[in-house]
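Request: When convenient, would you put together a sequence paired with its structure tokens?
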Amino acid sequence: MKITVVGAGAVGATCADNIARKELATELVLLDIKEGFAEGKAQDMMQTAALLGFDTRISGSTNDYSKTANSDVVVITSGLPRKPGMTREELIGTNAGIVKGVCENILKHSPNTIIIVISNPMDTMTYLALQSTGIPKNRIIGMAGTLDSARFKYQLSTTLNCSPSDSICSRENCNNYSYPLLQSST
């Protein structure tokens, strides 16, 4: 399987590193607009392969979408982060053009790919990707639920003074190692 991660910043690099370490792909392409950035991140990750024991081949590219050809999955993390005082609407205006351009370029080289959108504001960017590409909705996935759940679980773990990896649950799925939050359960 071939996976491309577009955007080599903190989120993209972390995503790519996890994909490689878990060997979810045989080939992984990291793409960014900043000259040499994705190539450097890819090289850093490849240099850890012998230490961490993964076989995923990782390459980086500066804005060369031909390197993403025939990707089975593309993860879009590109876009600007929200700055202090910036409204959601301002972020939409900035990132919409970026995400639309990424989708267009990706589909030129990987017309059958599945797109996972992480760029913010994620719900709007996912809808934009769906509308601008015309590909079936089952091939565009937004990541918000997972990310929001992980963030919520982290916040609960700090309040409960436990590890975020501990099971924190609602009444429907508790076990002996869970921390039930009955007053918050539905």
